UniProtKB/TrEMBL annotation:
Coiled-coil stretches noted in the UniProt entry, renumbered to this chain: none
Protein name: Succinate dehydrogenase [ubiquinone] iron-sulfur subunit, mitochondrial
Alphabetically ordered keywords of this record: Ubiquinone
One GO-annotated biological process of the protein: respiratory electron transport chain
Alphabetical list of PANTHER family matching this protein: SUCCINATE DEHYDROGENASE [UBIQUINONE] IRON-SULFUR SUBUNIT, MITOCHONDRIAL (PTHR11921:SF29), SUCCINATE DEHYDROGENASE IRON-SULFUR PROTEIN (PTHR11921)
Length: 81
């Protein structure tokens, strides 16, 4: 697979994980310009402990899913930045 030989002394699960990582990395080589924007709106309920008298508020963030990883955590990290 991908022309790379993995050492035989690796366990099967390690070899499988390495191949899966390589497959994900090769998919990530396509630029975001090649794909149409896949926008997703995240609504995050926020409250500031520095200002306890203020009510919590709902903030919306629009994220292009092609520009971040496949998990919700990746989108949250992108929002944080």
């Amino acid at each position: 697979m991908f022309g790379i030989r993995l050492p035989l002394n690796l366990t099967r699960s390690t070899r499988a994980a390495t191949r899966a990582t390589m497959a994900l990395n090769s998919r990530g080589l396509a630029t975001t310009a090649d794909k149409p924007a896949l926008m997703k709106t995240f609504k995050i309920y926020r409250w500031s402990p520095d200002h306890p008298q203020e009510k919590p508020k709902l903030q919306e963030y629009k994220i292009n899913l092609n520009e971040c990883g496949p998990m919700v955590l990746d989108a949250l990290i992108k929002i944080k930045e």
